[in-house]
Give the backbone structure.
Amino acid sequence: MRRFEAPWGTAEVYAAEPVPPELRTLARDLAPLGPRFRPALLRFRIGEGRRAPYAAVWPPDRPVPRLTGGGPLTAGEARDLVFAEVQRLTCRVCGTTVRGVYPGGALGGGDRAASAHRPVDGCAACGSSFAASRVQALAVLPPAASGP
Ligand SMILES: [Zn+2]
């Protein structure tokens, strides 16, 4: 785990080592997406230190830093890093719902970071564009496996 310090608070970004209990579901959801998508526990300065699970997402064409040991992430390692939530996204054209990794506005690196990522635009089910479907995500999760 390595820490990331931001104006809004702190994030603990986990590699593959055991994660805290509140990150287990998220870690399982993110596993198929590969090393760019890591579970992170955010602690906000406001809201009495509220903690929340987020996905730490690196841009596709940037090496993901080593996340075991080491000090806080450096500015270079965290460049264009964004924090995102797993949310249900419903296509406004065909009504298909998918689970996507959706960037939390204020927690991303702003427009510059957003442009470094290549979001999935539009609905894979009906082919509608983002403008029509309003479906956009950093990645779409495969359907949840059944069972425990
Ligand atoms: Zn659709």
